[in-house]
Specification:
The chain is α+β, with helices and mostly antiparallel strands. It is built from 3 helices and 4 strands, in the order H-E-E-E-H-E-H. The longest helix is centred in the C-terminal third of the chain and has 14 residues, at 70-83.
Length: 113
């Protein structure tokens, strides 16, 4: 796996491996308006180029509830405003194996298995 600012979580690593396997270009931890270092900035989990820039948020159970909160909805809306497309939201509980990740990512991104 590539060299990143921080190590991806297990769930993020599965998604990144899938993108690498499909030979898709991507940016892990993409900063909008300074990222988390700046008040109001956002750090997008992954931006995949399919070939357009497709933002992907990976919601693991450690940081996220089982449903999207109001604050997260505002954050997702801001990301969608920047990228002019809907954010793909992936839930950690759906990505517990490489096989599940393969199926979900193929469904969401549209690449063949």
């Amino acid at each position: 796996m590539a060299d990143y600012r921080r190590e991806p979580t297990d769930i993020e690593a599965r998604v990144l491996r899938w993108l690498e396997k499909k030979k898709m270009d991507f940016i892990f931890q993409y900063e909008i308006a300074g990222g988390t270092a700046v008040r109001g900035g956002i750090l997008v989990d992954v931006v995949a180029f399919v070939p357009w820039a497709q933002p992907i948020e990976i919601f693991g159970e450690h940081w996220h509830e089982s449903e999207i909160t109001g604050e997260e909805r505002l954050r997702l809306a801001r990301i969608e405003e920047v990228f002019k497309r809907e954010v793909i939201v992936l839930w950690g509980k759906d990505l517990e194996s490489d096989e599940e990740t393969d199926r979900i990512m193929s469904e969401k991104i549209g690449a063949p298995l």
